[in-house]
Amino acid sequence: MLLISCPNCGSRDETEFHYGGQAHVPYPENPNELNDRQWAEFLFYRDNTKGAFAERWLHSTGCRQWFNMLRDTVTYEIQAIYPMGTPRPDAAGRTTPDTGTASTAADSTTTGTAAPDISGTSKAATSIAPSTTSASTTAPEGATK
What we know:
Number of strands: 6
Number of helices: 1
Radius of gyration: 16 Å
Structural class: mainly beta
Order of helices and strands: EEEHEEE
């Protein structure tokens, strides 16, 4: 069982969360111009990465907020947890720039592009500590109440 550190609520059991699929999948600029095959690829085709993979998660029984997680699909090691709308951190803890066409608005759940391949990095370089945030009584920007 995973112990997931929610950016808003702290560490909780994985049963409080729901997996939301691959993170950083950009929404098409002109969805009305897509043919059926292109639309199906956007909706259903996702990476099947062995190693570090950026995922979206929802804290469904807690704060009900979405966040991104960088997790190793082989060892289940959580390498980083970061807010929606921020770039994906790489194995060294640096963020990669978003170059996609998606909205970067606070209410957007599809920001950025597919993650770069970092499968060639060493095991020692893949440990990224989750960011610590101070407790606040106000909801994050873009959150609904």
